[in-house]
Design brief:
The chain contains five helices and nine strands, in the order E-E-E-H-E-E-E-E-E-H-H-E-H-H. The chain is of the alpha+beta class.
Length: 151
């Protein structure tokens, strides 16, 4: 399995994205990212034949780049597939998150424009990579559920 690690940089002097430790401009050529992933899956011993492993219990369905629908939280029940993962620092303020109160709403829709910019960027790149799912900890783990944290 591979993860596209994407983080939004606040400083204008830095690249807009960092994918697997490599800085790239906001005018991203997704074919280069796709090439890196393909090389990883073909050449790295730990990545060979690992395209479709079991998905985490919850992921965000980003839809496709053609539909541009709002993403939604889905319970995948031991399905296999490929997904991206957003690695981000929560910092001082808590980003958008899933709680027991908004869990049902998040399963219907997560309004794209309500998300922090780094989450929006990660969803766009995930779509452009042709992936259907992304895992973002603050959205995929129910933050105020002790049982969710145990699992």
């Amino acid at each position: 399995m591979y993860h596209a690690l994407i983080s939004h940089q606040e400083s204008l002097s830095r690249p807009a994205f960092s994918i697997v430790g490599r800085g790239i401009s906001r005018n991203i050529d997704i074919s280069l990212c796709r090439q890196w992933i393909d090389e990883c899956l073909k050449l790295h011993v730990n990545c060979l034949n690992r395209v479709a492993l079991r998905l985490p219990s919850r992921v965000i369905d980003v839809g496709s780049s053609e539909t541009l629908q709002d993403p939604c939280l889905v319970l995948v029940n031991d399905r296999c597939g490929s997904y991206a993962t957003l690695s981000h620092c929560w910092g001082g303020s808590i980003p958008a998150m899933t709680t027991l109160c908004n869990y049902a709403e998040r399963q219907r829709s997560i309004p794209f424009l309500s998300l922090p910019r780094q989450f929006q960027d990660a969803i766009v790149v995930t779509r452009q990579l042709g992936l259907r799912y992304i895992w973002i900890d603050s959205l995929c783990i129910i933050q105020d559920s002790q049982q969710d944290w145990i699992e």
